[in-house]
Amino acid sequence: MKKLLIIALFASFAVQAQNWKGKFEQLGPNELPTPNAYRSGSGAPGTEYWQQRADYVIDVEVNDETQVLTGKETITYHNNSPETLTYLWMQLDQNILADNSMTAQTQQGGLRDSSATRILGFIGVNTSDYKGGYNITAVKDAANKALKYTINNTMMRIELPAPLKKGEKFVFSVDWNYQEYDRMQFSQRGGYEFFPEDGNYVYTFAQWFPRMCVFDDYEGWQNKQFLGTGEFALAFGDYKVRITVPSDHIVASTGWLQNPKAVLTAEQQERYALAQRTFDKPVFIVTEEEAKKKEKERATKKSTWEFHAENVRDFAFAHSRKFIWDAQAVKLATKTPLAQSFYPKEGNPLWAKESTKAVKNTLEVYSARTFDYPYPHATSVHAANQGMEYPMICFNFGRPNKDGTYSDRLLQGMIGVVVHEVGHNFFPMIINSDERQSTWMDEGLNTFMEGETIRDRYPALNYTTATPKSMIPFMKGDRTQMRPIMATADNQGRNHGPNGYTKPGTGLTILRNTVMGPELFDKAFKEYATRWAFKHPKPADFFRTMEDASAVDLDWFWRGWFFTTDNTDIELAEVKWMKVKSTQVDPEKKTPKTKQGDLASAKSNNPTDFSNGPEEFTLINTPDNFYGEFRSRINDDDVRKKLEGKNIYQVKLKNVGGLVMPVIIEWTFKDGSKEIDRIPAEIWRLNENEVVKVFVKEKEVVNVLVDPNFEIADVNATNNNFPKKEEPSKVDQLKKN
């Protein structure tokens, strides 16, 4: 019985040990998948990495009178996987606006007296006559034979007539139409804006065609429905797209314009060519005066604009007769892409002054930190109350008042959104993460780079996005209502913005500036970008690459910042001021004795300040048994002599918030000078709750402050200071802004 009891106890302890996860333990299979031939332990693509491909040839026409889009696409799907496929999945994202969509059925919210009518649409009450969603009119194979298909909300399954083996391709076509929606009413990513003053529209077409889902080594088919928040997982491919619109419309699009002679005037063609070799300022291809003139016209003819795009994961376009168009070339190390902007007169004077400049700045800074922007252009299109990204093109807000004036806040917001959305060309349009599963991999990384770009190119804006200080209000909130960064987009609720954008962006700022240092961080970040350009990375690939390329173990950071809702709250619990007693050694007893004139007893520190002076203590000679088998000895007198007169400070720190972080301590000396000590987060590895550390200073200290420059998002400034007699408001003042 005793033996069985011992075995049972041992088994119990073994289970507890297996389940225990300290903050510095390595991430295991519950957090990171086991490396394999497809994705290596270093974070690089494996030797047998593969990904699917889908090429598109599309003809689309937009009716400016009815706002109906009609399209036909031919898709060539390449099966590069080791699996044999018997069906394909496509995304029908427009079905989010179909009657009884899952989004409409699950929208929540209540009403109160004096609720605005526009609120009804946001809580799932349909007050519009609009009928949304795709009308699929044909799905056929290359022989024009109908294919069986099944529509499940925002997804469509296509049955293959024969199994599609590795290395084979399948060609099929889809015909469809749908009525574009008023984005003011539905607040979706595409749509149109109507201008009552002149009776014109600005169209921004997004998720406008049925698109292939991703099939990968990680989860097979991407099978999460489009509910509105979680964005897109898409395969790379080449696109040939012909867009038919009224002949007085200007089209902005993914891809490079193939037929400028057919759609532009001779003068516009000359300006377009000039812009491609002009690096110092934008060239106006369509001026404001020309756009105003066209607002009053209504062309009866049509024009077809043709665009080709290579190796992109999506395709979007915009068009209007109201568009002003300016562009200039950008000089990168190996490329000269075109930065350009399309906007109605309602965007001026702000857009003519700032949009293309912001596109240029973004391409330059992002390229330096990752790889040279590989596409032929990056385009910013003005669209009210919006910020949305697609390959080579994005839709951005920032509209001045009717008299052309605008506030500093609007200026900062407009520059911020242009930088952010153009930056999305890198994350996720090229470094092609799954936005529906891992929002932070594109939004978080991009928010970090947005902040880096604006602080570099627009220092006067004092941009605080993705800085630790800006994150404190969220981090100090109710943690029971929070979700970890790693939660999927549709499950984060009101935390989607912080968890998807600013918290991961802030985490990268902390890694770069405080944990790793800019040099190591930049090398590792660039390595991740180049490894996964035009591929499909997962969270583990980012985590592993950042460590592999820097030799910095960051599992403690990923575990705390990404997988939990803990926050940083380091309490400066105690500071003891000490000095070594002046002593001499009794040659017979080998123990020190106090010189005459020394204090008879040591002073005791005041727990709240330094008013009692230093506490004196004795350093005795090292006993022989401390040396073990060593025969050499420390010169105890020399040690005491080196410390004689020095100020020794014993600091106790407590981890109140749960996150382990580096400790930054600022010392203010009696003469007014200051000094900062930086201690790696590993100081917590043996005790995650409380640590004691001793510091030796030449000068007398009058103030000790933890996290003086808001580097680690410490949520409680009132426990970071010693002496403790300072009022909280004064503590905050001590922290540098």
TrEMBL record:
GO MF entries: aminopeptidase activity; metallopeptidase activity; zinc ion binding
InterPro entries from the UniProt entry: Peptidase_M1_dom, Peptidase_M4/M1_CTD_sf
SUPFAM superfamilies to which the protein is assigned, alphabetical: Metalloproteases ('zincins'), catalytic domain (SSF55486)
Keywords per UniProt: Aminopeptidase, Hydrolase, Protease, Signal
Biased composition (Polar residues): 602-611
UniProt-annotated stretches for the region Disordered: 583-615
Residue ranges occupied by any Peptidase M1 membrane alanine aminopeptidase domain in the UniProt entry: 402-561
Cleavable signal peptide: 1-17
Domain of life, source organism: Bacteria
Gene3D superfamilies with a match to the protein in the record: Neutral Protease Domain 2
Protein name as it appears in the record: Aminopeptidase
Species: Chryseotalea sanaruensis
